[in-house]
Automatic annotation (TrEMBL):
Domain spans labelled EF-hand: 147-182
Protein name per the record: EF-hand domain-containing protein
Keyword tags: Antiport, Calcium, Ion transport, Membrane, Transmembrane, Transmembrane helix, Transport
Organism: Pisum sativum (Garden pea)
Top-rank taxon: Eukaryota
One Pfam family matching this protein: Na_Ca_ex
Record lineage: Eukaryota, Viridiplantae, Streptophyta, Embryophyta, Tracheophyta
Membrane topology type: Multi-pass membrane protein
């Protein structure tokens, strides 16, 4: 129980707060600007913003606290006669909430869909940058790692077939027609729509030269950060993308088997773990509760914490929303 409570507290305090600080961007009209942090260590005027689905995840997390509150009511009211009844009611509500949550995840798998959308968008970025690199007359990045805007402008001129200073949906389609997206269910029209939505900041259904240069530069810088953090370097090295969406049926079977394996491991090692905590507590004169509540959660959640912080550090509304949704749903 100490490990479970400690893990939850760790997620909602240290990891949550670190993701807010690492992933913060400048705030404009209550919306965080992707990858724009001019405030540095100053917190005012900066922060994060998430989508509505992240709010739903937070509400689900709050609802899950109801059984704990019910169990604590007799203690807060100094009532000894109602403790057994409160535990029974809490147990019934917990089971009902668990079943409801499982059904909700089956019929409303919005977290999985959002992850898939993120993977598709990343795949478009990797594919387009590789394609632009092959078409360019020079390197897209300078020796200092900054985007070479002159080369990107030359690329824009070669793509702009009618030389009107704008790229239309048709011209972008001609650009991406040679990009292979077989690894995931993504056609060229979908890819063009994603590129237009990301580059067309003026929302006039056209991509100007400045918008093209800014968009490609932003993608290159994001790919460089991903490489520096140990991520996929394929965006500017020409490596093959590794994101592959597996068969949905196999994922479901695999998830069930992993849950079963986790339950067996927990049943097998729960008692030895309690004994080890007691022995360590006796040897160090540290209360067993603090070991299970503080030290064990830090050890068991370290890799998850690092992953969440790296994901949030990409300073994008989409990645921030996914990070906090996963924190709330755990």
């Amino acid at each position: 129980m100490g490990l479970l409570a400690g893990s939850t507290v760790l997620l909602l305090t240290i990891i949550w707060g670190t993701c807010v600080i690492i992933g913060k961007c400048d705030i404009e009209d209550s919306i965080a600007l992707d990858s724009t942090d001019t405030r540095g260590f100053i917190q005012t005027g900066s922060g994060i913003s998430t989508d509505i689905w992240t709010s739903y995840a937070a509400r689900i997390m709050v609802i899950s606290v109801i059984p704990f509150v019910i169990v604590q009511l007799p203690q807060m009211l100094n009532s000894t006669s109602g403790r057994h009844l409160a535990v029974l009611i809490g147990l019934v509500i917990s089971v009902c909430l668990l079943i409801s949550y499982c059904l909700y995840q089956i019929f409303q798998p919005w977290i999985q869909k959002r992850k898939l959308e993120y993977i598709k968008h990343k795949h478009v970025i990797l594919g387009l940058l590789r394609h632009l690199k092959m078409r360019s007359l020079g390197k897209l990045l300078k020796d200092n790692g900054e985007p070479d805007t002159d080369v990107i402008r030359k690329l824009f001129a070669t793509i702009d077939e009618n030389k009107d200073g704008h790229l239309t949906h048709g011209e972008m389609t001609a650009l991406v027609v040679g990009i292979q997206f077989e690894e995931i269910d993504l056609d060229h029209d979908d890819a063009v729509t994603r590129i237009m939505a990301d580059f067309d900041t003026s929302r006039n259904q056209l991509i100007g030269e400045a918008e093209f240069v800014n968009g490609v530069s932003r993608w290159l810088q994001g790919a460089k950060r991903s490489k520096d953090q140990g991520g996929d370097a394929g965006a500017h090295t020409g490596d093959e993308a590794t994101e592959v969406v597996e068969n949905a049926t196999w994922i479901s079977v695999k998830a069930g088997l992993l849950l079963l394996l986790g339950a067996l491991i927990a049943a097998a090692f729960a008692d030895p773990l309690v004994g080890a905590v007691d022995d360590f507590s006796t040897a160090t004169n540290i209360p067993a509760f603090f070991i299970s509540f503080i030290f064990l959660p830090l050890a068991t959640n370290s890799s998850e914490a690092v992953s969440a912080i790296i994901f949030a550090s990409r300073d994008k509304r989409q990645t921030t929303s996914l990070t906090f949704s996963e924190i709330y749903m755990q």
